[in-house]
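Troubleshooting log. The previous run stalled partway through. Resubmitting the same four chains, unchanged.
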Amino acid sequence: MADNQTIKSNFVEGLSGISAFWGFPKGMGAIFAVLYLSPAPLSLDELVAQTGLTKGAISTNVRALSRMGLIKPITRLGDRKDYYAAETDFYKSIRSILSERQNSEFDQAVASVKVTLQKLEAGEGSFDPAERAFLIERVKALQSFFDALDSLTRAVARLEGLGFGTIQNVLSILK
Amino acid sequence: MADNQTIKSNFVEGLSGISAFWGFPKGMGAIFAVLYLSPAPLSLDELVAQTGLTKGAISTNVRALSRMGLIKPITRLGDRKDYYAAETDFYKSIRSILSERQNSEFDQAVASVKVTLQKLEAGEGSFDPAERAFLIERVKALQSFFDALDSLTRAVARLEGLGFGTIQNVLSILK
DNA sequence: TACTTTGTTTAGTTATTACTAAACGTTCTA
DNA sequence: TAGAACGTTTAGTAATAACTAAACAAAGTA
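Second attempt completed without errors. Output:
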């Protein structure tokens, strides 16, 4: 029915779609998919061949994937090439991604909420008392929501070695 | 120091950034922020005035926000205008967003992984036995990861009325 | 030292997406 | 029924992001 290449292509397309859905480049998903289906680590040129992307694109995407912990770079002695292999411990990847997202723009944006709250509580601006109280209440609620989210991700990240089965079980207890 | 408008603007920009970070339009974050800081529901025209966006943009973004459960439309008798208010129960919103994401493109992409697995197990393609076994193992692992993720989101969605404090506590038990 | 082989960086292109401006369809009002 | 008030839709634009092609840097090899 379907030949080897077609079967693999469908898989690659699927992961590309998932990648795009989560706001990552499509090519990133494709690269990961190719590596994931490969028994041996692949070099940059092999990835060029198997994905149809150019070296430049592979280079940048591979770097991002490494930073996220979704793939791991492999260097062989006496071989100047870089090889890459898919990380098969998804839980490890998730922790890696979470700690990655923790920083950067997100924290920065969340911080601005904190600043707003501080200014309001410091009496800045010329709000009438009722409005100020209202604003403080609202912003404070948002703030604590972010704090809870943060705690949650930290908690998840702390669960080293444990798989999702565990989380699943725990949550099922709550019904 | 900072006037009322500046304080609010900073907050709006912050939420815009958060929105963008999660792959949503910046304007969506801005609209939610404005509503969130408003004691009373706002009409479309008031949103136009306070965000600087045009009616069209407000219209589409407001629809998306409603679908996600982040804001709620309010209609008043004898008033043809639509009003919108921010949902303040973030937990409710999260559940809503999760169930929204559940469907659509994501499921579709995940399904393609399942199809790949089925084809492999059905003996399609002309892989040699060793490679087929390898591929099946890999794809199966990914499949069960997705299943676990799915269970997790369902479990979270099932926790009606419970706040994040609960989840936090539960996860902290695991250390 | 010149030439290969590798990966990275950059400048420019393509594709996508969020937006604006304006036309449109409805529904209410005079 | 004409006109006004709303929200939606659409066609076009602007901004952004991912990619290609090619120049480049680094580091080995002849």
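Takeaways: Chain A touches chain B through 67 residues (CB under 8 Å). DSSP finds eight helices and three strands in chain A.
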